[in-house]
Automatic annotation (TrEMBL):
Keywords: Ligase. The keyword Iron does not apply. It comes from the Bacteria. GO terms for cellular component: cytosol. This is Acetophenone carboxylase gamma subunit.
C-alpha cells in the first residue's frame, strides 16, 4: 500500500471487534479480532495494529479515526457503574421507583420493573420548589444545603445527580445546589439534570441524568486509556466517538455527556444503511444488523433513519436524540433451550465471545445459531479467511445429543433452531415497519453484520419483502457507516409560546458555537409539536409560517398514526437545534467487471428436509452484473451469504448483492 491517508473505524461488538479501513480511492479493507469484554481497549489496539499490518500500512497514515463503543451499554446492562446518589425536591424521593404509568406487560402479575440505578437509601431530599412557569415558590436555603452536604458525605458516593422539580423551566436552584455542594465536598463529582437534558417530564429527565452519571466514570476512564494508547502509537488522527444519534462527538464531550454514547455501537450501522438506501434509491428500507449477541433493526424512510427523542436502555428512559432502533436478543451466539412446556426456544441468552458457540472449541457446551448453520452446511469449516477454525464434529455430536430430548435428528434440530430464530427476527422487523404504519412488503431488507447475510434470504421469504440488499463488506458495515457520520451536537429548550421562536433558535445557535468551538456548522431547526391535550409529541422541521407548520404537523401525524385532527389546536413545546459538521463524502467505488463466475467448490447444504449439493463462491470474484442462482453460498472474510433455491442474487455496479425471487428479479 502507498502512503495515502487512511480513514479507520473501529466497532466494538459482543463477539468481534470490527475494523474498517477506507483508502483514499474509496475502496475498503476489512479486519476482525475477538472482542475483549474485560478490557475493550485491548481489542481496539490489537485490531488497529492487525488491520495496518494486513494492509502493509503504518499507523501514522491514519488521518481519521472513529470509534463505536459498547462500554456505556454494557455498564448499564451488567450494573457495574458508579455509586450514584440523587438529590431531589422534598416529597419526590420515590420518583425513580414510581416511574411512569407504562407497564412492561399489563396482564402479567409476575412482571416487575427494572430496579432504579439509584437505590432508595442513596436518595436525599431538600426543601425547595419551582413552579411550572419557572417562578420560585420556595427558596433553596443555605442552611438546608449545609445539612444535606453532611448526609451526602456519609453516603460515600462516586457522583451526585441534582434533579429538582420543574428545573427545566428555571435551573437556578439546581445550579445553586451544585456550586455550594461542590464547595462543601458533598461528592467527588456533581451533575445537574438540566445540564444533561433540559426537557420536561421529571422522571425521564432524572432517569437520563442518572444514566449519564452511572456510566460517566467508566466511559471517562476508558476514553482516557484509548487517548493514551493512540498517542503512544503515534496515530496523528483525533479520536471521534460515535453517538446514539448517528453523529460524532469528541472524547472530552463524550466523557462529560456519557449517556449520548449508550447506543453508540449500533448507530453506525443505521447511518451506513441510510447512506446505502439513498445511493440505491430505496424508498423504504429496514436496517438489519445481526451480530453475535443481538440484532439491531431500524426503519429508514426516503433515505433517512427514524429518530426518537425518547429512547431507553434496559427499560430506563433516555431523553436524548437517538436513532430509533429496536434491539432483540437474537444473534449468532444465541443459545437454544427448551422451555417448561417442552418447546424449542432460542435466545435471548448468548454464548458471546467467551466461551462462544460449541463449534468455536473454546469450552462452550450450549448450542447456538452459529452451530446450527455449521451443521446444516451454510457455514463452512472456517471463518475469517481460514484464520478461525470451526469444529463440525463436536457441533454435530452435541446437536444429536441435545436433539434426542426433543425427539429430533441432527438436521431437524438445527433447522428447528433456525426456524425459531427466524420467527423472532421477523417479529422484530414487523415492530419497526407494520407497527409504524409501513407495509413490510414495500420495504427492502438491508442485511449486514457478521450473521445478517446468513438470515436475509429466509427473512425475505418469511415476510414477503421484495429484496434483500447485502453491502460489499457486511461484516463491518457498522464500522463503515461511522466513517460517513458527521460531527453532531444537539440542543433543546422548552418553549411555551407559538411566537418568538427566532430568538430561541438564535440563542441555541450561540450555545452550539460555544460548545463546538466553531461557527462553521450546518443547522437544522426542529420543534416538538402536538395537538393540545396529547401527552406525546412529534419532531418536525420548523418554519416561521404557522399555517405551514400546522400542515407539516398534520401530515407527519397522519403518516405516523394514520389520522390527523383538523379541529384540534396545535402547540409547540420544545425547540431543537441540530448542529452538524459534515464529513466530506468519499464516492462509492465501482465494482470490478468481466470474467466468468465459477464456484470454487461444492458442499452439501441441508435445505428444507434434504441435502443439496450446493456451489460455494468467493464473493470477491463475482463481477458487477453477474447473477448467482440459488441455492448457493458466498464466502468472504467478514461474512457468509446464503441464497435459497427459489432465489437469486444480482451483483450491482457498486458490489451490493440484491437477493430476489427468481421469478421477480429486483
Amino acid at each position: 500500500m502507498n502512503s495515502a491517508a487512511l480513514q479507520v473505524a473501529v466497532d466494538t461488538g459482543g463477539t468481534f471487534t470490527d475494523i474498517g479501513v477506507r483508502r483514499s480511492d474509496g475502496s475498503l479493507a476489512v479486519w476482525k479480532v475477538p472482542s475483549t469484554p474485560h478490557a475493550p481497549d485491548e481489542a481496539v489496539m490489537a485490531g488497529l495494529k492487525g488491520a495496518m499490518a494486513q494492509q502493509d500500512a503504518s499507523l501514522t497514515q491514519i488521518q481519521r479515526l472513529v470509534h463505536g463503543t459498547t462500554v456505556a451499554t454494557n455498564t448499564v446492562l451488567t450494573r457495574t457503574g458508579a455509586r450514584v446518589g440523587l438529590l431531589t425536591t422534598a416529597g419526590f424521593r420515590d420518583l425513580l421507583a414510581i416511574a411512569h404509568q407504562a407497564r412492561p406487560s399489563l396482564y402479567d402479575s409476575r412482571i416487575t420493573r427494572v430496579a432504579p440505578l439509584v437505590p432508595g437509601e442513596l436518595v436525599v431530599e431538600v426543601a425547595e420548589r419551582m413552579a411550572a412557569d419557572g417562578q420560585v415558590l420556595q427558596a433553596l436555603e443555605e442552611s438546608a444545603l449545609v445539612q444535606v452536604a453532611e448526609k451526602l458525605r456519609a453516603l460515600e458516593l462516586d457522583i451526585l445527580v441534582i434533579s429538582f422539580l420543574n428545573a427545566y423551566t428555571n435551573p437556578a436552584h439546581e445550579e445553586q445546589a451544585a456550586k455550594r455542594l461542590q464547595e462543601l465536598g458533598a461528592a467527588p463529582r456533581i451533575s445537574t439534570a438540566t445540564s444533561v437534558t433540559s426537557e420536561m417530564r421529571e422522571y425521564e429527565r432524572t432517569s437520563t441524568a442518572v444514566v449519564n452519571a452511572y456510566v460517566q466514570p467508566r466511559i471517562s476512564e476508558y476514553l482516557s486509556r484509548l487517548d493514551t494508547d493512540i498517542e503512544q502509537l503515534q496515530i496523528p488522527s483525533k479520536l471521534w466517538i460515535m453517538q446514539s444519534n448517528g453523529g460524532l462527538l469528541s472524547p472530552r464531550l463524550a466523557s462529560e455527556h456519557s449517556a449520548r454514547t449508550v447506543l453508540s455501537g449500533l448507530a453506525g450501522g443505521v447511518v451506513g444503511a441510510a447512506h446505502w438506501s439513498r445511493l440505491l434509491g430505496l424508498d423504504h428500507a429496514v436496517s438489519f444488523d445481526i451480530g453475535g449477541t443481538s440484532t439491531d433493526i431500524a426503519l429508514i424512510r426516503r433515505g433517512q433513519p427514524e429518530e426518537t427523542m425518547a429512547g431507553e436502555i434496559d427499560s430506563l428512559p433516555l431523553r436524548l436524540p437517538s436513532v430509533s432502533v429496536h434491539t432483540i436478543g437474537a444473534g449468532g451466539g444465541s443459545i437454544a433451550w427448551v422451555d417448561s412446556g417442552g418447546g424449542l426456544r432460542v435466545g435471548p441468552r448468548s454464548a458471546g465471545a467467551e466461551p462462544g458457540p460449541v463449534s468455536y472449541g473454546s469450552g462452550g457446551t450450549e448450542l447456538t445459531v452459529t452451530d446450527a448453520h455449521l451443521v446444516l452446511g451454510r457455514l463452512g469449516p472456517s471463518l475469517l479467511g481460514g484464520r478461525f477454525q470451526l469444529d463440525l464434529h463436536t457441533a454435530r455430536a452435541r446437536m444429536a445429543e441435545w436433539g434426542s430430548q426433543l425427539g429430533l435428528g441432527v438436521e431437524e434440530t438445527a433447522e428447528g433452531i433456525l426456524s425459531v430464530i427466524t420467527a423472532t427476527m421477523a417479529r422484530g422487523i414487523r415492530k419497526v415497519s407494520v407497527e409504524q404504519g409501513v407495509d413490510v412488503r414495500s420495504c427492502h431488507l438491508i442485511a449486514f453484520g457478521g450473521a445478517g447475510p446468513l438470515h436475509g434470504s429466509d427473512l425475505m421469504q418469511e415476510l414477503g419483502m421484495p429484496s434483500t440488499v447485502i453491502p460489499p463488506t457486511p461484516g463491518i458495515a457498522s464500522a463503515v457507516g461511522m466513517l460517513d457520520a458527521p460531527v453532531r451536537h444537539d440542543f433543546a429548550t422548552p418553549v411555551t409560546t407559538t411566537t418568538g421562536l427566532e430568538d430561541v433558535f438564535e440563542a441555541l445557535e450561540k450555545q452550539a458555537a460555544q460548545e463546538m468551538g466553531t461557527e462553521e456548522f450546518l443547522i437544522t431547526r426542529l420543534v416538538d409539536a402536538r395537538y393540545i391535550g396529547q401527552s406525546y409529541e412529534l419532531s418536525i422541521e420548523w418554519t416561521p409560517d404557522w399555517s405551514t407548520q400546522r400542515e407539516r404537523f398534520d401530515a407527519a401525524h397522519e403518516e405516523r398514526y394514520g389520522f390527523q385532527d383538523p379541529v384540534a389546536s396545535m402547540e409547540v413545546v420544545v425547540a431543537r437545534l441540530v448542529a452538524t459538521v459534515p464529513h466530506q463524502e468519499v464516492p462509492q467505488p465501482t465494482w470490478h467487471t468481466g470474467g466468468t463466475v465459477e464456484p470454487g467448490e461444492h458442499r452439501p447444504v441441508y435445505i428444507e428436509g434434504a441435502w443439496w449439493e450446493t456451489p460455494i463462491f468467493e464473493r470477491a470474484g463475482i463481477p458487477a452484473g453477474a447473477v448467482i442462482k440459488g441455492p448457493a453460498v458466498l464466502n468472504q472474510f467478514d461474512s457468509t451469504t446464503y441464497i435459497r433455491p427459489d432465489q437469486e442474487a444480482r451483483c450491482d455496479e457498486y458490489g451490493f448483492l440484491h437477493l430476489s425471487r427468481k421469478e421477480t428479479r429486483a
